[in-house]
Amino acid sequence: MAVYAAHLTRTLQGRPSLFQVTAQEALGSTVKPALQKVIEFLAATYPNKCGWCVDWYDELYLLFDGCLQYYYLKHYAASFSESFYGLLRVPVSSSSEFSSGQQLPLHLEKASLALLVLLPYIRDKVEKVVDRWREDNEEGRLGKSRADRARRVAVHSYAVVHTASACARLLVLARYACGARCATPALAALRLALRDAPPREDAGGWGDTLRHAVTGDIGSAVSSLPALGSLALRGAEWGAFCVQLLRWWSARADHQQALPTPPPPKREDQALRWKNKCPLCLQSWKIPTVLPVSGYIFCYICISRHVRAHSSCPVTRCPAAETSLVRLYID
């Protein structure tokens, strides 16, 4: 009877909105770059002890993310970001949902863990390799050998696959907005839907543990430790949300437009040698591209490679991003 009541409760709950679906995806994509900044800071501060973490960050995050997602799938039938927005994964088949209660079947739990952890890891690794091959192709380092032709085909194939996956995601979201149950391609592949999760039970916190410890009730203090772990996880969820909020705030241009316009940089004497030439290769421009932060014009290949590696202008050392490059069409 209790299982049937839980099934009815979940069935009658409303479907998550598009905002919840897209917001939990954005939150999940925030954790890895945020932790990477922490690792880079530790590596710069303690190079002898933490320097290796930068080279093996993808593998370290794979281990961390695997443990985190496994815990949430096991206890809440949801991913880390889905649990933060109060969502729950349920099978589309009503019979499977009725038999499994509030816990995913084992095969769906394992498949969800693989798609949440292994698939992003493989995608990031493939993307790094393809980016390196794309850069070699743009710079003309790929010859006519069979291996180089295969790399060139892989670059174009990856672009097609990436575009197709983005279109598939938009199509699934459009179908979800029209009433379909699956909100993402991964959930559609597993035949899973998202529902509002029931409220979590309050099992005490720091105050109960401290009170039991002071009074000498060690057994009760130990029994309340899982509650502390739950509080720590909630703190991690809100920490990830705050990081996402800060990234959104830093991406806004309103507060930057309110600042006074800085004076233009002084023209240096060596700039005369760079007239109608790229300051990096000292040759005539090939695909002239301006870096707005400094105003200098470079070859696209030269400046894109430098900005990706150093995130700054090679002449003025001002911070710059590859997304700020502007192509010039000069007659």
Radius of gyration: 26 Å
Give the CA-based shape: elongated
Number of domains: 2
N/C terminus separation: 78 Å
Let me know the largest β-sheet: 3 strands, antiparallel
Mean pLDDT: 77
Helix content: 55-70%
Membrane topology: Multi-pass membrane protein
Family: Belongs to the pex2/pex10/pex12 family.
Pathway: Protein modification; protein ubiquitination
Protein name: Peroxisome assembly protein 12
Describe the overall structure.
It is a single chain. This protein is mainly alpha-helical and 331 residues long. It has 2 domains: 2-196, no CATH class; 270-327, Zinc/RING finger domain, C3HC4 (zinc finger) (Herpes Virus-1), CATH 3.30.40.10. The chain has 14 helices and 5 strands. The chain is elongated. 17% of the residues are buried. Strand 3 (288-290) and strand 4 (297-299) form a beta hairpin. Residues 1-13, 96-100 and 221-226 have low confidence and may be disordered. It has helices at 2-12, 18-45, 47-55, 57-76, 80-84, 94-100, 106-138, 146-177, 185-190, 206-214, 218-223, 225-251, 254-257, 300-310, and strands at 87-91, 192-196, 288-290, 297-299, 326-327. The strands form 2 sheets. It has a 3-stranded antiparallel sheet with strand order 4-3-5. Strands 1-2 form a two-stranded antiparallel sheet.
